[in-house]
Amino acid sequence: MVLLDSPRRRYLYLGLALRLVLILFGLYQDAHLAVPYTDIDYSVFQDGARHLVHGCPLHAAVPPHMEPMETLNEFLEPPLAPVHGCAQGWLALGARYILQHEDILTARSRGRQAAEIARKDLGEEATLSLIEPNIVETTLLPVSLAILKPILKPLAAMGNPYARPTYRYTPLLAVLMAPGAWIGGAFEKVWGKLLFVAGEILAALLMWDLARFRRPAAKRQPTSTSRLALLGDVTHAVGILWLLNPFPAQIATRGSCEALVVSLVLAFASAAVRIVEGEASFEAGLITSEDRPEQASNDSNDPSINTAKPAEGKPTPQSTAPPPPGLGLLPTLPLPLLAAPVLLALAAHLKLYPIIYGLPLLASLLPHSRRRWLDALGFSASASYAFLGLSGFAWLVWGQPYLQESLLYHVGRVDHRHNFSPYFFPLYLLHTPAQDGWLPALAGGGVWAGEAASRLGAFLPQLAVVAWIGVRVGKKDLIAAMAAQTMAFVVWNKVSTSQYFIWYIAFLPILLPSLRFSSPLVGWASLLVWVATQALWLSQAYLLEFEGQDVFVRVWAAGLVYVVGNAWVLERCLDAWARGRRDAREQEQRDREKAVAGKEVDREKAVTAAEASASSRPASE
């Protein structure tokens, strides 16, 4: 099927138009209404980009008419630059040092006489002028500096996005936002939102691409009345649930970067599915049925596939079927194997949570054969090196602030502001000064509150559920495992907000056509519970935030209801997924039996025709 047929193009145009209208409406609301449309996070992104572009001018980072900087602190914080305005990594420091000492490094390239003249400027290094210059000093060093200068100048003038308080994202996000900060004006207000909208459009294309690996099974399944007819087709499912859905549209147009994360996750899933399906292997590039035990067993039951062993002494007949189209850049390193670990590393660099997707991919590879162990090992090593390489580069440019704000902060994050997670209340009790009354008295060191608010202890139930789903479901269905993992991660996370729901909603259009609830009532009940638990929490949060009522306990109780309700929804969805797989296998078996019966009928007809022809031949002679 063509990836972009007419209905899909129509959905793309309508989805893009919806988002552009929301961007224009947001500009109007921000300018004329009391409640802004743009999310506060977008302001953080913009400020980080401004610090990156304007926070460390080159004339301040490398002053042309000042005494040379000598101490490490001077290179970290140039005297003429704003406080914490310059990048603090070793690459940035080295670039400033080289540019400041360019005259000293190249003085001897002008010969002995020039070095003697520069004796006063060089100070102690002037003694080197008595030594005959060599080719390194006269040629290689000046040429190298001339080549590297276009790179050294941006590095030396690289700003520090972490100079903006609460900027706790990857610096690459500030780099993506930099064109808006550099141009300024109205373009700065919309550039990031257009970038996020492009991420949502790309995500829709990737959903349709992933559906190609699930569509044949979905088409063979019987039609159910538990869902709308349009949503049974992935073209309309992606169009209605993603492109025309106002929830993801307003998340992107308000300035949240979740669409970039989702697009990277889906791109990784697209490459990972190709690895699991056998289109890519570190050893041979293509996986045969011998490497997939269940596939081999299915093939042995299919009479259309000749599995008979050749007679002894005769050569084994070679298949004349053309091989699947290759995606490889190299014979043994196809494109999915090169792209999947890099895409996963990029997604985890942007947001840490996608690192959980490595587990279901490994679980889907390891049970099949020894050859797939090589694929699993190669993927693990490549993804680890890619993530460490990205993180190492960011650390070399931006230094310790990157490690502290982008990585370590999220491991021990303490957010006591109210959110869907019930963890917020114990954290609030721990960080509120004790006062009279029973509620603040718990802040005096209650054991249960201290245990619940432990920075690392909160990860234990979350990681246990996520790991169990990744291994158990990942062996059977990679995409379903990723979707279930994401929902479990969001529900049990220490901090849970509405924008995080986008992480697992992005999998819904791909999986919905293959879900089979036990009854239509269960499907509608799951949707109702998902909406009602959020509505209950939002009603109490409104009283707390806008009415100023003391309803902390009620907000916390609503958070508990949210966790229990969403856990029930997840369990029902996993049950519907299992039913869908069972229906698909039964339908495949029926199709196989029908094909066998059809071939038997054709064979009997051929035999009857041959006998009739043989019996009529003597009569004609």
UniProtKB/TrEMBL annotation:
Its main location: endoplasmic reticulum. The keyword Translocase does not apply. Residues 609-621 have a biased composition (Low complexity). Residues 287-325, 583-621 are annotated as: Disordered. Residues 295-307 have a biased composition (Polar residues). InterPro entries: PIG-M. Pathway: Glycolipid biosynthesis; glycosylphosphatidylinositol-anchor biosynthesis. It is found in: Endoplasmic reticulum membrane. GO terms for biological process: GPI anchor biosynthetic process. Residues 583-606 have a biased composition (Basic and acidic residues). GO terms for cellular component: endoplasmic reticulum membrane; glycosylphosphatidylinositol-mannosyltransferase I complex. It is a multi-pass membrane protein. The keyword Kinase does not apply. GO terms for molecular function: alpha-1,4-mannosyltransferase activity; GPI mannosyltransferase activity. Keywords: Endoplasmic reticulum, Glycosyltransferase, GPI-anchor biosynthesis, Membrane, Transferase, Transmembrane, Transmembrane helix. It holds the Pfam family Mannosyl_trans. Its EC number is 2.4.1.-. The chain crosses the membrane at residues 373-398, 452-471, 501-517, 524-543, 555-574. Belongs to the PIGM family. Mannosyltransferase involved in glycosylphosphatidylinositol-anchor biosynthesis. Transfers the first alpha-1,4-mannose to GlcN-acyl-PI during GPI precursor assembly. Required for cell wall integrity. PANTHER family: GPI MANNOSYLTRANSFERASE 1 (PTHR12886:SF0), PIG-M MANNOSYLTRANSFERASE (PTHR12886). This is GPI mannosyltransferase 1.
